[in-house]
Design a protein that fits this description.
The mean pLDDT is 96. 94% of the residues lie in helices and 0% in strands. The protein starts with a helix and ends with a helix. The chain contains one helix and no strands. It is mainly α and 86 residues long. The protein has one helix at 5-85.
Length: 86
């Protein structure tokens, strides 16, 4: 089979289209990678915030327990004083 000028032109056109498609795919892949990197950074920040919130909640619980303990001590002192005055 002999290649005609028309066949060679068509082949050249197809190769050019494929090169363009490949370039577009590379650009799309690059954009996806950038998006993934952005998501990774966001996920890491959210994990850090979650860890910080967890620590803060533990601190609040600890302070609440200490306040409850102090309240119970004062309540017992008031009850003691009331019994003593009766």
């Amino acid at each position: 089979m002999r290649w005609t000028d028309e066949m060679l032109d068509e082949l050249s056109s197809i190769v050019s289209e494929m090169r363009e498609s490949i370039s577009e795919m590379r650009e799309s892949i690059s954009e996806v990678k950038d998006s993934i990197d952005g998501l990774r950074v966001t996920a890491q920040a959210l994990l850090q915030l979650a860890a910080q919130s967890q620590r803060e909640m533990e601190n609040v619980k600890q302070r609440q327990a200490e306040n409850d303990e102090q309240f119970n001590v004062i309540l017992e002192e008031v009850r003691f004083l009331n019994r003593r005055n009766d």
